[in-house]
Amino acid sequence: MVDIGVMERAYELKEEMIENRRFFHRNPETGFDLPVTTGRVREILESMGYEVKKVGKSGLSATVGKPGRTFLIRGDMDALPMAEETELEYRSENGCMHACGHDIHTSALLGAARILREREYELNGTVKLMFQPCEEMVMGARDMVENGILEDPKVDAAMALHVVHKPLGTVGYSKGSACASSDVFTITITGKGAHGAASYLGVDPINVAVHMHLALQVLNSRETHPDDMVVLTIGMISGGAAANIIPDTVVMKGTIRTMNSDTREFMKGRLLDISESVAKTFRADCRVEFLSEGVPPMVNDEALTEDVTGYIDDLLGEGTTYEIPRMTGSEDFSVVSEKVPSLLLWVGTGSEDEGYPYGVHNPKVTFNEDAIHKMAAIYADCAIRWLEKND
């Protein structure tokens, strides 16, 4: 069944969604500090007749429909702290940039909100809208979950869309584990400073850091099964100020990514074991700290994936959806997937062959805005049809 009404209405709202997107693009904000963004989202939703609730530090939620099963759809709102280098007329000039397409996600979800409000009579249950902050720092979803986004009414299933530089309008999905967990760590190694000419009088934390870095690579190559994807990366080592001085401390920073919650806990434990053991071997001390709680792997529910990809192929044409490999990047919608059956999909917003050569997180990245109304239609149609099936 092709729901022509939803798709046609989304197309009619295309210019409205693009206008909203350009406002958000011109005014990017980061983390939890989103006063302009959330103010505009609230204003638009309230103009449609929604009652908007603040959830957590700066998340927003609204519902439409009637009592019954509840289907959640999410759009993230935050940008990146990087200067934009595009020639767009509506480019940002405040030192931040929507280089990951969250302005598109937010605008598409607002478009879906209007369609769902107009078709509320069709809903065999409730659709909950989740406007999320701080995805880039993988803290926003957890903050909203801990502050009740999945309750009152209780959420039964959830879906999120994310832009990707693939052919316009295509929709990629992964079965099972879709994105890796993410745990960011800092290791502070404390030795004893000394003159470089008398190194035996000190405890060299640079030497400790070098041995520690090499020892940690064993976790990738010797302590996990080759089929169980694991990536441990040290991205920063900092210490010392002069060629002839052994410093007191060295700081190392890195990330751990896995596709399995048990492997994730194993890796975190072994990071601690190896770091402390290597430091002790060379008479140094170390402290291992993790940034926040991190996020688990993103797991796509099998039944929900089968249903929703079917709905999308009905809506946009057979073959619109296609299976993609799991990715080592992270998405904090995984915190929702840990609690309720969930699905994360990747919507094509223009490939290199279509004139979009730059990927996300690039200061020159641009997106084809013709994807926005398609995403709004996907959000709305999938919510309507899932509630219809699961009434």
TrEMBL record:
UniProt cofactor(s): Mn(2+)
Residues reported in the UniProt entry to bind Mn(2+): 100, 102, 136, 162, 361
Checking Gene3D superfamilies in the record gives:
3.30.70.360, Zn peptidases (3.40.630.10)
Q: Name one GO biological process term.
A: diaminopimelate biosynthetic process
- Give start and end of each Peptidase M20 dimerisation domain: 185-280
One GO MF term on file is:
N-acetyldiaminopimelate deacetylase activity
Q: CDD domains recorded for this chain?
A: M20_Acy1 (cd03886)
Give one Pfam family.
Answer: Peptidase_M20
- Give the note describing cofactor binding and stoichiometry: The Mn(2+) ion enhances activity.
**Keywords recorded for this protein, A-Z:** Hydrolase, Manganese, Metal-binding
Q: Give the NCBIfam families listed for this entry.
A: amidohydrolases
Q: What is this protein called?
A: Peptidase M20
Source species: Youngiibacter fragilis 232.1
Source organism lineage? Answer: Bacteria, Bacillati, Bacillota, Clostridia, Eubacteriales
